[in-house]
Design a protein that fits this description.
Elements lengths: L2 H22 L11 H7 L3 E2 L7 E2 L6 E6 H5 L6 H5 L5 E2 L12 E2 L7 E5 L2 E2 L25 E8 L3 H4 L6 E7 L7 E11 L7 E11 L4 E12 L14 E16 L2 E15 L3 E4 L3 E4 L5 E18 L2 E20 L2 E24 L1 E18 L23 E18 L2 E12 L5 E11 L4 E12 L11 E4 L2 H4 L28 E4 L7 E13 L3 E24 L13 E26 L2 E15 L12 E10 L4 E10 L2 E2 L9 E2 L2 E13 L2 E8 L22 E9 L1
Parallel strand pairs: 6-9, 26-29
Antiparallel strand pairs: 1-2, 3-8, 4-5, 6-7, 8-9, 10-11, 10-37, 11-12, 12-13, 13-14, 14-17, 15-16, 17-18, 18-19, 19-20, 20-21, 21-22, 22-23, 23-24, 24-27, 25-26, 27-28, 28-29, 29-30, 30-31, 31-32, 32-35, 33-34, 35-36, 36-37
Length: 728
């Protein structure tokens, strides 16, 4: 065991002992609200993401973690990804920029995790950016004040959800409309100890109630604003500001107790604010964190859903559209050029639940889906690549829109073999007009040995179809540095003639220059997945351990496919020529690991909980390269104290192990392990007002990397926060 983790464990043990001593001297039992009570309630949580129908979390045919509104309310949530970083099986979410800011389920990159809101896809805004690695993950379009819970399913769920669910599913469940008018408002302020780091202000409110006997409504709005850093001495210590505005609502009509119609919609905008400029060795000047752009991304969502309950079962039908519009202005030599980037996703979802008895009880779900996606991006599609000829010699100028339709049918049947043993079988057939049909089967068993001990396990296949630009021959983005070298290393005329030059010294060596382009001949990525684990819950202890194993085929990797000499390029930035690289189905990869959880009620008013994820293997089997931004070991631990009826305290730590910062076998390109400590307190003044305060990154830890080319800091320093919530 490494020294940082030993140090972290010892420190937390001391904190736990001290806290338990304080607890023993606290108020009488009659005056305190048991902390364990909420955990017992949590075990009865009904979840909807792990199967085609509602099930108790203990019966769910998948590894699932639920974050409740109560847990979310204990801290300011400027980033849902930061909140999810504490879930077992989740990595990332700790940074402010790049890959470090994006969450990964069981080591897989963010694009392998399907994000839902109330069970519905929210689309993907990343391809509206010029550089997808700089685009924020689509997790923060929902007002935290409006979240009822977040269900995180770890492991492939293609049998229910199709493509993009290879790593798992994140389902953000919003609060439902109420029959009596009421609501809440929250304000949170975060202030870093370092005055050069930007403050964060979060304001949100929600209200819900009945309009008539059959009609009810809900509305929520919020703003999260982070100031830009003031330190521009170097790239490693600054980031741009950001403003995120959201408005969402729904109108529900219940003509009878068994039928409900819902009109739902939302609008959001994410804007880079207070630009910070810093010198760049290759570009001269660039917009820190935004690749030279001033931009605003707008999200629009509108849909209609119908739920029905019948004597034979239930049904659901949803029709909705998501739109992302990105307004980008790029400055080149003092000239500002506006461009247009937008994506539209139209979805029709339908499913029927049919419980019946035949030999054994069944819970059968059948359904279908139609998706139509369209992307327009005149910065990356239909361009001439800054004067360089296209990879296939064709002219795609002006052809800046790509689209595709997908049809799917799925089924799932939960068979109650015995009162203590359920078997789930399911499968989904997807037909993307760009590829052959893909069938994803799944078998999963849940066995309750007794009331406390449950065993779970299963096997499944999953797939992920390439996105629209990966198959578009007219797609192109420029890259330097890691974008070119991460897969193939440094050029050598003997040992690596297809590699890229890595020096920025134009007088002696070529620049690192390449263009990413599409490949219309791609096939879908596929995986085979195994999972086995157990869960134990009684009045005092709870815990579990899950082993997971995933083998990938046809893994997409960027390959160098063509070199264009300098004499064929009308671009002075590239005096030595450029490479074209394109995705190809060339790799096999494997991820194996353990997820563990443990919690104990130290007293009725003190609870210690810990979760950890350890990866035995996380690498490209063809190249031996490690998966980036995926720590070998991550741990989150918390001690919760109910000091009185009004006062709740928490001390927590998060250990992030060593992780590679680039896809390479280079042993020098990695970030060292670190531990973050935090404390927070919630005080209920009365039934209507709660105040909170705390400190995150208590000891002002920072991420140390061995890779000198890192151009942004990954975690925020010591930060103080205060907050207030009112209910009405």
């Amino acid at each position: 065991m490494n020294k940082p983790f030993m140090k972290s464990t010892l420190a937390f043990a001391v904190l736990s002992t001290l806290a338990a001593s304080v607890q023993a001297q606290n108020k009488s039992v009659e005056e305190q609200q048991p902390v364990a009570q909420s955990e017992a309630t949590k075990l009865q949580t009904i979840v909807v993401t792990a199967s085609g129908s509602e099930v108790n979390v203990k019966d769910a045919p998948a590894s699932i973690t639920v974050l409740t509104a109560e847990e979310i309310a204990k801290q300011p949530v400027k980033s849902i990804s930061e909140l999810l970083a504490k879930v077992p099986g989740v990595s990332g979410g700790m940074g402010l920029n790049g890959e470090g800011a994006k969450i990964k389920l069981r080591g897989l990159p963010s694009e392998y995790s399907l994000i839902l809101v109330d069970g519905r896809r929210i689309g993907n805004s990343s391809r509206t950016a010029y550089r997808t690695d700089l685009q924020r993950q689509d997790l923060n379009w929902i007002n935290p004040e409006n979240i009822e819970r977040i269900e995180v399913v770890k492991g492939p769920m293609s049998s229910l959800y199709g493509s993009d669910a290879m790593g798992g599913v994140i389902n953000i469940i919003t609060k439902k409309t109420a029959q009596e008018w009421g609501g809440s408002a929250t304000i949170n302020l975060e202030k870093p100890a370092d005055s050069t780091e930007g403050d964060t202000l979060q304001i949100s409110a929600t209200a819900s109630g009945a309009i008539t006997d059959t009609v009810s409504a809900r509305i929520a709005a919020g703003r999260t604003e982070r100031e830009a850093d003031q330190n521009v001495k170097d790239l490693e210590s600054s980031t741009t500001g950001m403003r995120n505005d959201t408005v969402e609502g729904s109108l529900v009509y219940r003509p009878t107790d068994n039928h409900q119609f819902e009109l739902f919609g939302s609008y959001g905008s994410q804007t880079n604010t207070n630009p910070t400029y810093a010198p760049n060795v290759s570009d001269g000047e660039f917009w820190l964190g935004s690749a030279g752009d001033k931009n605003e991304t707008e999200s629009q969502r509108l849909g209609l859903a119908w739920d029905g309950i019948y004597s034979w079962g239930s049904s659901n039908l949803s029709v909705y559209k998501n739109k992302y519009d990105r307004s980008t202005t790029t400055e080149v030599d003092g000239v500002f050029s506006p461009t247009v980037q937008k994506t539209e996703l139209t979805v029709v979802d339908a499913k029927v639940n049919l419980p019946f008895d035949f030999v054994v009880p069944h819970k059968l779900t059948v359904g279908g889906q139609f998706r139509s996606e369209e992307l327009t991006n005149d910065r990356t599609l239909g361009i001439d690549s800054n004067g360089a000829p296209s990879i296939d010699g064709n002219d795609y100028t002006g052809d800046s829109t790509v689209a595709a339709d997908v049809w799917a049918l799925f089924f799932e049947d939960i068979l109650s073999i015995t009162p203590n043993f359920d078997v789930t079988i399911g499968g989904r057939l997807d037909k993307d007009e760009r590829y052959d049909a893909n069938f994803s089967p799944r078998v999963y068993g849940v066995y309750h040995f007794n009331d406390a001990l449950t065993f779970k396990g299963g096997v499944s296949t999953a797939f992920r179809a390439p996105d629209l630009v990966q198959t578009a021959p007219g797609f192109s983005t420029g890259s330097r540095g890691k974008g070119c070298t991460s897969q193939f290393g440094t050029y050598d005329p003997v040992t690596n003639p297809t590699g890229f030059q890595s020096s920025y010294d134009a007088n002696t060596n070529p620049f690192v220059n390449c263009y990413n382009t599409g490949n219309p001949n791609l096939e879908a990525e596929e995986s085979t997945n195994y999972e086995l684990g157990f869960q134990y819950d009684d009045e005092k202890y709870s815990g579990g351990l899950t082993y997971f194993h995933t083998d990938f085929d046809n893994k997409l990797v960027n390959m160098p496919v063509k070199h264009i000499p300098a004499e064929q390029i009308n671009d002075p930035r590239y005096p030595k020529g450029v490479w074209y690289i394109a995705p190809d189905n060339a790799e096999k990869a494997r991820i194996r690991g353990l997820e563990g959880t443990f919690a104990v009620n130290l007293t009725d008013y003190a609870r210690w909980s810990t979760n950890a994820t350890y990866l035995f293997e996380s690498k490209n089997l063809d190249t031996g390269a490690a998966l980036i931004s995926t720590p070998e070991l991550s741990v989150h631990s918390a001690l919760d104290l109910q000091a009185s009826d009004a006062l709740a305290l928490q001390m927590n730590l998060q250990y992030i192990g060593k992780q590679y910062t680039t896809e390479t076998t280079d042993a020098n390109a990695w970030a060292k392990a670190y531990t973050l400590y935090g404390v927070n307190a919630n005080y209920t003044l009365n039934d209507n007002v709660t105040v909170r305060a705390g400190i995150s990154n208590l000891f002002d830890e920072s991420m140390e990397t061995t890779d000198s080319s890192e151009d942004y800091y990954s975690i925020q320093g010591r930060t103080y926060f205060v907050g207030l919530t009112t209910r009405f």
